[in-house]
Amino acid sequence: MSKTLTEMAAEIVTAQASHTGMSAEEMNEVLKKTFLALRTIKEMEEGVGAAEGAAVAPEVAGVTGMDPKKSIRRNKVICLECGKEFKMLTNRHLMKEHGMDAKQYRKKYGFTARQALSARSLTLQRRENAKERNLGQILKDARKGRPAAQTDAPAENKKKVVVRRKRKAAPTPDIAR
Ligand SMILES: [Zn+2]
Predict the structure, then answer these.
(1) Averaged over 56-82, what is the pLDDT?
(2) What is the sign of the dihedral through the CA atoms of 14, 15, 21 and 26?
(3) Contact 76, 86 (CB under 8 A)
(4) Alpha carbon separation from 53 to 5, 47, 49, 57 (Å, rounded)
(5) Which of 43, 68, 167, 175 could pair covalently with 109 via S-S, beta carbons 3.0-4.6 A apart?
(6) Distance 48 CA to ligand 1 centre (A)
(7) What are residue 167's phi and psi, to 5 degrees?
(8) Longest pairwise C-alpha distance within the chain
């Protein structure tokens, strides 16, 4: 905050006075009240911030002493509650071992809601898989009517089936677009 509370209060009261035509005395009174109100707000803000900081900091230091950001690495994610290493930190582990869910865990260690609690390589891989699944779904929709055979067919036949299907399915997505 670059302005002082006094400056802010003065600005607010001046703006108000220009509309309502207050006397000097009234302005003085309003200025005091405004200043006090602003100070209360500021104290509340600072108070809340300090309390949050105090709640999080000792636990982070106490368990693993690790910067939460460093717990998510290329090939593993480290549970900040117990220091165990995972490919992916699951709700099941957090619930069973630490009595919290992923949402609470993220909040506690300052992760955003979108932060994946898994090794970075795995996160990337899953993103790619999701893309492929989307593509797969499009193809599946395109070849609807003959869905089951694929998984039951022996490996060699499967190849043929896939190739044949691809050829058959090919024109459909173009139409769909
Ligand atoms: Zn753990």
Answers:
(1) 79
(2) negative
(3) yes
(4) 24, 10, 6, 6
(5) 68
(6) 28
(7) -60, -45
(8) 95
Q: How far is the centre of ligand 1, averaged over its atoms, from the C-alpha of 79 (Å)?
A: 5
Check: CB of residue 31 under 8 Å from CB of residue 37.
no
Residues by chain with Cβ below 5 Å of ion ligand 1: 79, 81-82, 97
What is the mean pLDDT of the segment spanning 14-33?
79
Helix (H) or strand (E) holding 86: strand 85-86
- 109 CB neighbour count, 10 Å cutoff: 19
Ligand 1 centre and the CA of 100: distance in Å? 10
The first and second tokens of residue 148, run together, are 């089951």
- Distance from the alpha carbon of residue 85 to the mean position of ligand 1, in angstroms: 8
Give the CA dihedral 148, 152, 158, 162, nearest 10 degrees.
10
At how many degrees (to 10) do helices 120-142 and 155-169 cross?
A: 70
- Expressed in angstroms and rounded, the spacing between residue 87 Cα and the centre of ligand 1 is 13
Distance 84 CA to ligand 1 centre (A): 6
Query: Is pLDDT at 169 greater than 60 in this prediction?
Result: no
pLDDT at residue 16 above 50? Answer: yes
- Helix 5-20 × helix 24-63 angle, to 10°: 140
Instruction: Give this prediction's pTM.
Output: 0.42
Which tokens in the block code for residue 111? 């992760």
Using CA atoms, how far apart are residues 16 and 6, in angstroms rounded to an integer? Answer: 15
